[in-house]
Amino acid sequence: MTIQSALVLAAGLGTRMRPITETIPKPLVSVAGRPLIDYGLTALAQAGVRNIVVNVHYLADQLESWLRDSPHTAVISDEREMLLDSGGGLVRALPKLGSNPFVVLNADTFWIEDDTVETTNISRLITAFDREKMDILLMTARPDQATGFDGAGDFAADSNGRLDRYHGGAVPLIYAGVLVINPTVLVGDFPEKFSLNQCFDRAIAAGRLYGMPMKGHWLTVGTPQAISQVEAAISAFKSQLAE
């Protein structure tokens, strides 16, 4: 299917990135010479997604200023009065996103892939989304194709790609920070402020949460000390592609 809209989640406080984030919002933290949010916005543009909404809360003026001066075109979903968490942020932005399935992308995690490949990860995710059997389709990464992740794993997949929470015993999968969601999932008795994890759990219970394995290398910058580690991984991946 064709998806034209995306929400970039950029409203978080970035507390683990202090002291850097005492003066700038985490999406503007520079990694390998680019703000974190630039990686995601570029990936969306490469996939042909044109209606971009960015939610803002912490140091929102800085994000808005950067977006105005950047080559990216985005509409702001304003959460200055109250941070609504990932799920509440989606509900707030729905009038700007439309009634069709859309992409959701975390502004502070990203991935690197082979730029010579015609079909990018987000394009593959959009193509793979099947609204007849899926409520949410997550992009997933294996621990061996990730840098900066220190958890046990988020999900496990069956042979058809259907996801459940990871409880050990299976191959652990990481939620790689980008998904496609049918907005009908967001209709119901949710509080004003809630996490997308509630939607994940409801989709699991209905057998409608799926995963798509990504290609390339996934990166997350959780602390200031992780920046150099992630930059080294980017350099190594690019060197490997050049061989």
Structure overview:
There is one protein chain. 28% of the residues lie in helices and 24% in strands. β4, α2 and β5 form a beta-alpha-beta unit. With 243 residues, it is an alpha/beta fold. α3 crosses α5. The radius of gyration is 17 Å and the shape is globular. The strands form four sheets. It has a seven-stranded mixed β-sheet, with helices on both faces. It has a single domain, classed as Spore Coat Polysaccharide Biosynthesis Protein SpsA, Chain A (Alpha-Beta Complex), CATH 3.90.550.
Please describe the structure with a list of short key phrases separated by commas or semicolons.
243 residues; alpha/beta; Spore Coat Polysaccharide Biosynthesis Protein SpsA, Chain A; seven-stranded mixed β-sheet; three-stranded mixed β-sheet
Task: Map the helices and strands.
Blueprint: E1 5-9, E2 30-31, E3 34-35, H1 36-46, E4 51-56, H2 60-69, E5 75-78, H3 85-97, E6 102-106, E7 109-112, H4 121-128, E8 136-141, E9 146-147, E10 155-157, E11 163-165, E12 174-181, H5 196-205, E13 209-213, E14 217-220, H6 226-242
Parallel strand pairs: 1-4, 1-6, 4-5, 8-13, 9-14
Antiparallel strand pairs: 2-3, 6-12, 7-14, 8-12, 10-11
Judged by helices, strands and strand pairing, the structural class is alpha/beta
- The total of beta strands comes to 14
Largest sheet: 7 strands, mixed
Average residue-wise pLDDT = 90
pLDDT below 50 for ≥5 consecutive residues: which ranges? none
The separation of the N and C termini measures 35 Å
- Rounded to an integer, what's the Rg over CA atoms? 17 Å
H and E order: EEEHEHEHEEHEEEEEHEEH
Helices, by number, come to: 6
CATH class: Alpha Beta
Anisotropy-based shape: globular
Strand portion, in percent?
Answer: 15-25%
Number of domains: 1
Briefly note the CATH topology name: Spore Coat Polysaccharide Biosynthesis Protein SpsA, Chain A
Indicate the percent of residues in helices. Answer: 25-40%
Q: Based on the coordinates given, report the CATH architecture.
A: Alpha-Beta Complex
